[in-house]
Write a structure and sequence with these properties.
By secondary structure, the chain is an all-alpha fold. The protein has a domain of about 220 residues. The structure holds zinc ion.
Length: about 325
């Protein structure tokens, strides 16, 4: 079994990477369901995907990315337009799974896929609703610690069993505590200086989750890299979006009722929904979760080598080693 695996991996190196990409597209399709249903507190298993008109979407019209392209973004039953966000999330997950498989050993890559799935869900829920549900932040943090204990390879820890498991678990818990603690104090200081909340409790817990998977170095990078990503990439995007009238759409009615986006059914965005105008405003609330997630991804998908070396340098100069 393992020999076959190694044989395929050596002679057809693209095979498993491609498989990882396909698995990513399928996972992305499931993440789309999670992103819509979890904030609405609906089951992510049952019922299956339905169109806005209420008709179920047959499995052959539920193929990631391809369906959207083949049907040109319209539902086959009633012609309602599908948001382009669905294939984008599927493609994004596919590319990230492909990437993580290419740069990490198999076990770390599989754990990375769990990490990536949580990051994507939390990011898009935060963009839609300005919240990161606890099951992603706290739940993800607990999962990160459990997986770290089970697979020390996640933190590049080698050595005899038990010892390495404990070491890895401690690395993960420290990562969560240092990450969350750092963001907490920056948030407190930020509130004192700017006299308005800069980051939410959700961001504190979310960095804890990133720390549980990436260790304290990853959490620290998520915080400062996230701020950098925010100012360099996302803010100009939001500004351009505002100038050209591309706004995040939240149906005003349903938001007032339940606080979540109930006007949009799985798979289909209805065009005639009343929209709140100023969802994204410069200087107003901008979700910080997506920036933390992007920085966390940058760290996990290759940048950890430079960050860890840099932080080790700083530590060495502090402690004179
Ligand atoms: Zn329909």
């Amino acid at each position: 079994m393992l020999e076959t695996f190694e044989f395929i991996n050596e002679d057809f190196p693209w095979f498993f990477s491609l498989l990882a990409g396909v698995f990513g597209a399928l996972t992305g399709s499931f993440l789309n369901v999670c992103i819509y249903r979890i904030p609405a507190e609906r089951s992510i298993i049952f019922p299956g995907s339905t169109c806005a008109c209420g008709r179920p979407i047959p499995f052959y019209h539920n193929i990631p990315i391809l369906t959207w392209l083949l049907l040109r973004g319209k539902a086959s039953c009633c012609g309602a337009p599908f948001s382009i966000r669905y294939p984008v999330i599927e493609l994004l997950t596919a590319v990230l799974f492909f990437w993580v498989w290419t740069i990490h050993p198999p076990v770390v890559a599989l754990l990375g896929m769990v990490f990536i799935a949580f990051l994507i869900c939390a990011t898009f829920i935060d963009l839609d609703h300005m919240i990161i549900p606890d099951r992603f932040s706290i739940g993800g943090m607990v999962l990160g610690v459990v997986l770290s204990v089970a697979f020390p390879a996640l933190h590049q820890i080698e050595g005899p069993a038990v010892v390495s498991n404990i070491q890895s678990g401690v690395t993960s818990i420290l990562g969560a505590l240092i990450g969350a603690g750092l963001v907490y104090w920056i948030a407190v200081l930020g509130e004192v200086v700017f006299r308005k909340p800069a980051m939410g409790e959700g961001d504190v817990k979310f960095v804890g989750f990133i720390g549980a998977f990436c260790g304290w170095q990853g959490a620290v990078f998520a915080m400062f890299g996230g701020a950098l990503v925010g100012s360099v990439v996302l803010l100009p995007c939001l500004l351009i979006g505002r100038l050209f009238g591309i706004k995040a759409r939240i149906p005003a009615e349903s938001q007032a009722e339940t606080g979540v986006e109930t006007g949009v059914e799985m798979g289909v965005e209805s065009a005639a929904e009343p929209c709140q105008e100023d969802v994204v405003q410069f200087g107003a609330q901008v979700p910080f979760g997506p920036m933390l997630a992007v920085a966390g991804l940058i760290y996990f998908l290759g940048f950890h080598i430079y960050v860890d070396a840099y932080l080790a340098d700083i530590a060495a100069s502090f402690f004179g080693q």
